[in-house]
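Q: I'm teaching a short session on how sequence maps to structure, and I want students to see two examples side by side rather than one. Could you give me a first protein with its sequence written out and its structure tokens following it? Keep the formatting plain so it prints cleanly on a handout.
A: Of course. Example one:
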Amino acid sequence: MPLPPAYPPGPRGPVEVATTFRRFMRDPEAQLRTANERWGDVLGFRLGGDRIVLLGDPALVGEVLVDKEGVWIKDKVTRDLSAFLGQGLLTNEGASWRRQRKLIAPPLTRKHIASYADAMVRRTADYAAGLREGESRDVHSDMSALTLEIVTETLFGASLGSDPSRVGHAIDGVMGDFQELVQTWRRFFPSSVPFAARRRTVASGREIDAVVFEVIHKRRGSGERGDDLLSRLLEARDDEGSGMTDAQLRDEAVTLFVAGHETTANALSFALMLLGDHPEVDARLRDELDRVLGERDATADDVASLKVTDAVARETMRLYPPAHLIGREATRDLTLGPYAIPKGTAVLMSPWALHRDRRFWPDALAFRPERWLDGSAERAPKNAYLPFGGGPRICIGNHFAQMELVLVLATILRRVRLERSSAAPVRLQAAITLRPAEGLRMRVTRRPHGSAG
């Protein structure tokens, strides 16, 4: 008679477990490579009272993300984001999530997002026009400010009060505070313990509420509508003719705001860093811009023709996926591959590690955008590339984000080349998103006809 499936192998004992988890959170790619060599693609351990399983097998990752049996929910760490995001698409579950997803999906189809291209290009052109020959810029700070402007216009169609940077600063604060709460000994205490980081997160949420609710109330009260996402969400109705409450609008707006601001800024920063480090790729991208655009800026209609630019964006998100960790929790006892997964187990999947796995990606650590042009990327296993997640809960703004990456890169690189001010490795912060930990300084060189546009 066959033995029942066992819990996955992995580190045992408090010291080995703590060391493994700490290294995984700091550098999932390196730690999973080491762990896979020792224990295989399914790694299980207990951290305090929590059961945690790390997956490195794309086939099993697909089983979890597709979730045909409906047994997985977001993991506790993701659910804890509700203190800041509320019950938006990222943190919501069940029937409420399905209703909200159905209401939000239409304004984020390819057809609708094309109308946001003008704002993306116009805001970026204004930014690039202000860059001066030879100056040193913190590109991550610049991209954060730029994507803040873009998401403010496309999401709200207007300014966020007198100081839109209030929301950006609040989001920045949450990134560090959340990392402090989930990657240190503080994770073992209940959410009712008022650590300073938790108090700051609550305060950041209130700061955002004050700004976002003001916009929602004014827009609903005025009856004015435009082409922005908020206007479309205000008009959205479910099958019974009901729309969203102000609280639901707030939660979805903040979730979209964080996704459209924070993650896109990180991807753009890493793309500019990689292009600065690889002048041969920068030159190839520039040739494409000259050929496709000439002396004008890109439009939504040009995105399909900017294949090298698109490949740079995809390869950047392979090496530095902003959404670097995906978590799910089992709602009942089940088996995953040959292993037993008890109810309540958190299963963590790392796009950062999967994207750099040498088994799936030849020359995995190299920046090679051509892999997206010569068909070699298509040979990677399904679910070995997950920049926007996967399954029914794939990021709803993926088309918006991909278009924004291409248009912003094209608009900047028509005008300037950026080179890193230092050859030192960029230290990374793996918190809610993967981002440069200490800024990213780059030196500006104007293109010969970069003042056009």
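Q: Perfect. Now a second example for contrast.
A: Example two:
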Amino acid sequence: MSRYKVLVDSSVWIDYFRTRDIPYLEHLIKEDLICTNDVILTELIPSLLLQKRKDIVESLLTVENIQLEIDWVIIRQYQLMNIKNGINKVGIPDLLIFQQIIDQRITLFTFDKHFRLLKGLHHFDLVMNRN
């Protein structure tokens, strides 16, 4: 990555597609500061195609895609730490995103409460507000 980027989680995109009212996301898009990954695209694209929103799919595919470097041992360690600390039901997609933002030091923009809980255990940059 050549400069600061923010990984926009599917929870934010879904809300944005529905309301078009997330000023912070608008700012990130305008400044070309957003990025995505294959987990997020895989969560979004099938539903968008069923809704015949090919225009949105094409736009999403132009966003910088940060490659995942999955380390299953680390993923299991994160999940074990989560469970030991009472953070249950963090799904594999969120753990993959979590590993990526930790390893690659990427800021995450999400509305998913799991990440707020994970913030209490790990140091990473997190944005959860709409403004």
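Q: What should students look for in example two?
A: Point them to this: The first helix runs from residue 10 to 19. Also worth mentioning: DSSP finds seven helices and five strands in the chain.
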